[in-house]
Design a protein that fits this description.
Helix content: 40-55%
Strand content: 15-25%
Radius of gyration: 33 Å
Number of helices: 7
Shape: flat
Mean pLDDT: 84
Strand order of the largest sheet: 1-2
Distance between the termini: 94 Å
Largest sheet: 2 strands, antiparallel
Number of strands: 2
Oligomer: single chain
Structural class: alpha+beta
Length: 179
């Protein structure tokens, strides 16, 4: 009786397409589009991801590859880069007949051109804000200054026994006028 069991939607639509699903996730295809491509409802795909760790893993791994590629491209854009591009140009060449020039013909000639892409300031700022958090990069100078002062105060608190006498602070509570 178990041999005649009808395959589930997961077995029919998802399992045979696991490599395809991973390639789509790696290419940045949305979950909704992945679901459409394998002909299931997007909510069903989400439910299957919760029930089947192997499905969740291939989509997450594919996404991780895509994120790494984006980070690499963003970094490359932030620092600027050179790239060699293959192009073609039209060149006129002389045609000779019996040792004499009889005309010209246009031919396509391939060549390489090196292009320079200058650093993208917006990408640089974004990466410094996100990757350089531990170095206190911020968009406002006041925020950055506050971070540095906070660090200095923490260092002083840690080394308070080593601080010279004039740097020590004494707090006196004189709110009521009682001294």
């Amino acid at each position: 009786m178990a041999a005649n069991k009808k395959p589930t939607l997961y077995e029919r639509q998802v399992l045979p397409n696991m490599e395809y699903i991973e390639r789509m996730a790696r290419s940045g295809v949305s979950q909704a589009d992945i679901a459409d491509a394998i002909k299931i409802n997007p909510r069903t795909l989400t439910r299957y991801m919760g029930k089947h760790p192997e499905l969740r893993k291939i989509i997450e791994c594919g996404r991780e590859v895509a994120v790494q590629e984006l980070e690499n491209a963003l970094f490359k854009s932030a620092i600027g880069f050179k790239e060699t591009v293959k192009k073609t140009r039209v060149v006129k060449k002389a045609v000779y007949k019996n040792g004499r020039k009889s005309g010209e013909v246009e031919v396509l000639e391939p060549y390489d051109e090196e292009l320079y892409f200058p650093p993208n300031v917006t990408a640089t700022i974004f990466l410094l804000k996100n990757w350089g958090r531990n170095r206190h990069y911020a968009s406002e100078p006041e925020t950055m200054q506050a971070h540095w002062k906070e660090l200095e105060m923490k260092e002083k608190m840690m080394n308070k026994d080593e601080a010279p006498e004039e740097e020590k602070v004494i707090i006196i509570n004189d709110l009521n006028g009682d001294s």
